[in-house]
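Purpose: get a first structural picture of the assembly so the mutagenesis plan has something to point at.
Setup: two entries, given in the order below. No constraints added.
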Amino acid sequence: MTTDCERAQQSLLDGAPASDPAVREHIAVCSRCDAVIRTFDEISATARELRGTWESPELWQRIESSIRTEVAGTRAATGRLRRWHDPRVWQIAAAFVLVIGIGAVAMRVATTSPDGEEYDRWLLRESALQEVEKSEKAYMQSIDRLSSLVEPAMDDASTPLAIAYREKLMLLDSAIAECQAAIDANRQNAHLRHQLLAVYREKNRTLQDLVREEANDQQITAESDSAVSQH
Amino acid sequence: MISRSPRRVTPPYHSTRALGAAIVAGLLLFGAAVDARADDEVVRKFQRTLNLTKGGVSIDHRMGSVVIRTHRKPQVVVNAVIKTSAAGKEAAERLAEQIAIVAEEKPSGVVIRTEIPNLKTRHGKLSFSVDYDIVMPESAPLTLRNRFGNVSVSDLKATADIVNSHGRVEVRNGRGSQRIENSFGSIDVAQIHGDTTIQDNNGAISVKGVNGSLAVTNRFGSVKVSDVSRAVTITNANGSIDASDVGNAMIKSSFGSVSASRIRGGLQVTNTNGRVDVRDVNGNATLRTSFGSINFSTIQGNVECKSTNSRILGKDVNGNATIENTFGTVEVRGVNGSSRISNQNGSTSASGIGGNLTIDSRFGLVKADRIGGSIEVENANGGVNASSVGGEAKIRTSFAPVFLNGVGRSVEVQNQNGSIAVSGLSAAAGKSCNAISLKTSFGALRVAVPQNGAYQVSARTSFGRIVTDLPLTVTESGEGSLSGTIGAGNCNLILANQNGNIQIERSE
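Result (structure tokens, whole complex):
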């Protein structure tokens, strides 16, 4: 197995082979890795089909009952030590391991399957959306606080730098409005939400820079006033 | 005979049934898990192949990415993936059906557009994205409009006109003129064989490898350009510019740094409120800025710098250097041609100047060293310190001392309220001396002349002593004045002071 194959299969275990461009390139040229990915996809597809035709709420009870019968029978017939030599015990254990194994793999594949990952890249699920909205809210609060600090300076912007800052803030506000209007009709679109977050981040950074500039100006003015008064 | 414990015979179906049930349970769990994703998501795929015999491809899209690849067939293969999400499966499916992909063959070429229904669902569940993967003829022109998505175009051998917003734009391996516009997203362009025009707003621009000319305009984002065969024009505001390995370059910027290197032709930089760093320019360099430093090195042609409130540091200029500055230091080293420096309220330093050096300064110290030609300094309220001057030295200043050491030709210093010291004088070939004229008021005046010098001395001071270490044949002596000759007296040595001593020393 080559390093690339290891990486591809590791990414499968990680659940996102489609998200890594290098792995995608490798899968495109490596038939072995491609076959592994296809197998996982087929298992996923087959399982999806099975779900609709074989639903049995009593299944677990039947399995448990069967196991209990088997175990009880075994206890009655043989001693405790002998039980471990009984091949049926091992078969049952194997069945359990298989159940847990298949289930675990299925959960892993399903929750992080390439298809799912791909989907998440474009439309956010509710939990992800809540995280994004929480982050947006935090940015908005920070922006509000910073805006209140720089508002007087922005109102009286006369220097080229202040005018440039004001222009940038207006530009960012227009971008925020565009994103928000688009989000109104497309709330879970991941690109839109990421774009809005990026603009919020940019505005926050711009306001921070502006606050720093203001502080520097005030310090210079204070020092200048102090020097004049001392003189 | 070996006795064996009795073995219970179990019908084989018991264990097999348990195993089978376990497998089924596993598969059910598997199926349930696979379907654990919300069932309100729908993916609809669209695929259509259209013929393109003439004209180009026009795409109008929003809310998703567009990937353009090319082939040599006269066909446009449109693949689109529509992903929708809604409160229920039916609603998601309905939305997926309502989003229309229109792909048509028209006389002007192939037209592709996305028609999205009018949705107003604030905090609702309807969401969607539409992503295109389009393969088009490599020789067909492309017109692409997109919003809220990334754009990628590769291997197009025809003109492209791309306008995007709120997404990243990547263009690779193109041939033909390219016009790329974006806002609120980066632009990444590489390996274009044709003239390229790029405009962005609040996004970083990166361009590498353009075989043609390049024009870039940006605001509130950085610009990085390299490997451009022909002329480059870059205009940016509030963002840095980095250009390297380009032809003639014209750069305009404000509130951002400018870095330019390995310019095969001439360079013109106009910046405000930002620093300028320039190196390896094959032609002339004209550099302007304010409130930011200028650093330049290895300029094959002439360099012209103009700045205010800046620090200018330059070296290795093959041609001439002309520098203007205020409120900052100027330091220039290694200029083959002549140098003309004007600086106000800042110190000035020039060394290794092949030609003449002219400095106009106020309120700053002037230092000059290893000047091949003559030096002329006009200063006020600032000292002058010059050494190893091949030609004449002509210095005028006030309220600060003047020190000259090693001047090859005549010396003329006019100072006010500052001392003067001149040493290391040498004569031009075939001459034993050069004319020296040193005048000041309120300061010591000291000159060291060669032992074989031949001077006609005229020294005068109102309040001070006149002292000479060399034998002087006095022709006239009065109160505060002395005239005479040293040696043959071939050259004038005029020393005039008002309130200070005059001392004539022997050079070592």
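The CA atoms of residues 216 and 222 of chain A lie 10 Å apart.
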